[in-house]
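Quick one, tokens below. Sequence please?
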């Protein structure tokens, strides 16, 4: 009977174990014998042929510690595996050797444990669904924005109003000091605006050819050196300009795109805005539901899990900047950062994403959610159909094992988030039992790395509306229609002028399993 290992363990605060494995005298002696044989086969020992030196001679020449080190290099993994099996411990990643002692022989290790998630009574969570209503007034505002963006400045004979531009020669003084002396100066009149209270309002009602004289007093709390003093102005009005917008009619509607008339434009804008608001409301609901579930859950994980998530975020950024022809180090240097500083900066994001992923994985498992082969096939057909001129490349990718796993992951994500939204809005009764997940199937998904639902956009696939991480503009920021033929692309800022991007898409699923 093999001499048992002497094992001691104690839990740490960071979801790791201090784990000590000590060898008894029989195992120690066996290790010494094994190490001596290995050394004898490889080392040149005077007076003996290779592999023929006796145990005592090897021990005397190399010393007990060196012989043990030789044996333990090979035995270490075997001993650790035996100890983990004996203690029924599943680690998240490789063990860290903190110390190795030789008398007695003892391995002092730190073991990262698998993350644990307790969702609590997640079915009691309630989140109000955001309002996605779109009105005719919203359509009016969108059309008015388009008209405003195409407005042109035109001279007018009427008196100036707020929003007009007044062209003038103006002279201003404070006492004997000249404050301003401008020719052909253009002033856009703003309500309660301007650099001096009352200045813009003084030109309301002015007409071309008129001369105006007025005085204003700098406020006592002004940052100007003239605070509390009176400024005098004389202005000769040369021109009043107003913004003329296009006439709102069928012809104008046709200039904005492939619209038959104004009614067609309004109908299609209403449909588009409704679709956008619905997607945004769904996204806000998803984010709120995930946040509520994560806050309610008790989640524990080792530092290695955070490191791996941070690695993925850095890798995502590296992929993004590679297209610009820069290395990650060069790109971050232009932002005044190093890779290590960037890693520190995104660690809170990495931790939040890790919690989200772990919570969603547990949720999907508790709800018994899976993706069937016919769903994957249907999803692949839809992706190919939506890929247009990339259909062949998409079909080839989704025909690969990696592509099918990515598609299965995305479909499971959609199903998981849809189920979560249904629960938090009360569409699933608390008493309704979740479907029982098949244990073998769940284990298979986990081992393949596709079991965890991930909020992500997979390669060659269209991003899902349920993507909980990627922010989208608010509905009121929707783009106004612009003339298609004359719509030039906006310049893309240089990388050195841009903010450091943080990858928005959720990284790939966490790898799980004992790594020795």
């Amino acid at each position: 009977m093999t001499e048992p290992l002497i094992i001691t363990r104690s839990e740490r605060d960071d979801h790791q174990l201090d784990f000590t494995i000590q060898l008894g005298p029989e195992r120690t002696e066996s290790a010494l014998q094994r190490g001596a044989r290995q050394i004898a086969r490889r080392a040149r020992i005077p007076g003996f042929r290779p592999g023929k030196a006796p145990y005592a001679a090897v021990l005397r020449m190399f010393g007990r510690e060196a012989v043990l080190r030789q044996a333990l290099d090979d035995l270490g993994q075997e001993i650790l595996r035996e100890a983990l099996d004996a203690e029924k411990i599943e680690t998240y990643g490789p063990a860290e050797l903190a110390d190795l002692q030789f008398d007695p022989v003892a391995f002092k290790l730190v073991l990262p444990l698998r993350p644990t998630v307790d969702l609590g009574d997640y079915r009691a969570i309630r989140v109000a669904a955001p309002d996605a209503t779109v009105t005719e007034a919203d359509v009016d505002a969108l059309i008015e924005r388009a008209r405003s963006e195409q407005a042109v400045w035109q001279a007018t004979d009427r008196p100036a109003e707020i929003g007009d531009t007044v062209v003038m020669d103006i002279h201003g003084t404070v006492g004997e000091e000249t404050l301003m002396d401008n020719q052909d100066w253009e002033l856009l009149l703003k309500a309660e605006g301007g650099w001096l209270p009352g200045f813009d309002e003084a030109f309301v009602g002015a007409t071309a050819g008129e001369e105006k004289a007025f005085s204003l007093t700098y406020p006592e709390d002004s940052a100007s050196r003239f605070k509390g003093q009176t400024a005098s102005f004389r202005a000769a009005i040369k021109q009043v300009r107003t913004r003329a917008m296009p006439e709102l009619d069928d012809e104008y509607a046709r200039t904005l795109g492939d619209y038959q008339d104004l009614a067609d434009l309004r109908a299609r804008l209403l449909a588009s805005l409704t679709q956008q608001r619905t997607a945004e409301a769904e996204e806000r609901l998803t984010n709120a539901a995930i946040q509520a579930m994560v806050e309610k859950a008790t989640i524990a994980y080792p530092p290695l899990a955070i490191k791996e998530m941070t690695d993925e975020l850095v890798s995502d950024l590296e992929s993004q900047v590679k297209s610009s022809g820069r290395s990650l180090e060069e790109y971050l240097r232009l932002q005044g950062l190093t890779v290590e500083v960037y890693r520190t900066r995104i660690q809170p994001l990495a931790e939040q994403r890790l919690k989200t992923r772990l919570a969603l994985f547990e949720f999907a498992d508790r709800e018994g959610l899976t993706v069937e082969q016919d769903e994957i096939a249907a999803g692949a057909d839809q992706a190919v159909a939506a890929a247009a001129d990339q259909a062949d490349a998409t079909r080839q990718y989704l025909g690969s094992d990696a592509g099918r796993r990515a598609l299965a992951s995305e479909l499971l994500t959609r199903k998981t988030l849809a189920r979560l939204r249904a629960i938090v809005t009360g569409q699933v009764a608390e008493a309704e039992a979740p479907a029982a997940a098949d244990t073998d199937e769940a284990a298979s998904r986990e081992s393949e790395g596709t079991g965890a639902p991930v909020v992500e956009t997979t390669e060659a696939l269209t991003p899902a509306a349920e993507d909980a991480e990627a922010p989208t503009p608010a509905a009121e920021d929707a783009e106004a229609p612009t003339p298609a033929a004359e719509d030039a692309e906006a310049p893309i800022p240089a990388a050195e002028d841009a903010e450091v991007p943080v990858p928005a898409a959720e990284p790939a699923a966490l790898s799980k399993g004992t790594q020795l």
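The chain has 13 helices and eleven strands. The radius of gyration is 36 Å.
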